[in-house]
Amino acid sequence: MAANASTAASSSGGEVAPRPPQIDKRLLNAATSGDSTSMQALASQNPGILLGTTLTGNTCLHIASTYGHQGFCMDVVALENLLLTVENLDGETPLLAAVASGRARVASILLRCYQARQLSAAILWQDKEGCNALHHAIHSGHRELALELIEAEPALSKHVNKHGESTMFIAALRNFTHVFEKLLNIPESSHAGRHSENALHAVVRNGDEDGARKIMGKRPELARAADDLQGSTPATVAVLYNKTKVLRVLLEHDCSLGYVITRKGNPLLVCAASRGHVHVAGELLRHCPDASYQRASDNYTWLHEAVRFDHAEFVEFIMRRPQLSKLVNMRDHIGKTALHLAVQKCNPRIVASLLSHECIDATVLDNSNTAATWKLTTFTQNAKTLNWASDSIYIS
Fold this sequence. Notes:
The structure is a single chain. Helices cover 47% and strands 0% of the residues. By secondary structure, it is mainly α. The chain has a domain at 1-125: Ankyrin repeat-containing domain (Serine Threonine Protein Phosphatase 5, Tetratricopeptide repeat, Alpha Horseshoe). The radius of gyration is 31 Å and the shape is elongated. It starts with 24 loop residues before the first helix and ends with a helix.
């Protein structure tokens, strides 16, 4: 980074450097109003006046740039180049201050000033949050400015802010396709995201099939990266957010992604069941017909999970597939089948679906030696949408 003009002492504890003068009130007013004539008159009498700062470290160029005064900015830079590299207490150069304030046109003009003076280090400056001008341009929605910055200094793509976010990750989150693709094509660009996510997590969350396809072509290793919160891979995100088409892209590139287990021990089919995402489950089975469907910690199957969350359509989806017949009588860690759980949940539609399956054994005993049929009478009075007695006829 460029030298901080407001530093009061050297890091080695040596001689104290003189502080910049406090900004002249007349110059501050001129910067706020964009009055170049007054600024030039003051500078003609005392050129050093232009380097004065406010108590927060802002120069007249910082002030004018945040107010959007293009003419003033160009005029004052013509008189004093050093203003371009002064850092305020937020760690902002005038360029950063302009971008962070949403002054895209001023930022574009200042960028050309930095380039003309070969101030690459100042263009790459990061503020106290670790954000550079490109981070702020993308955050503020200024796509054209973002592209200008990338063209001027591709190295901006390498920076990660204090929240762990790269510019590519933010562009992917905001679904700024062109900006994202430009960054992806820079070989050393960072793809990092918050909590160990990456740009592919963001692309998947947005349902961007084309973006996912591009990442899988250039950086396929991102598909195996898990976040540090839930241990979710991009495939897990696709399942949880019901992004069937994006999941298809991932599995077509590498079907083994469908076999991942989350940090909590959930196979992807169990994740799909918890949300009731039928189409996602179908896509998983199409690519991974023998994908894991049972949580090791408690023997919960994805059928148990669908019943637990009252996803009747999902239960019916499983019941329609002969290859999944074994699920109807599988027990969890306390010996309960999906039917036990459905009866406890008082869900007549799900009970009826389970009882209609040709392989159902309604007499299976749980660890307390209780069959689901014995509980049916107990819960009959709680049924409101269907007559439990009509379901009982399925039990033989």
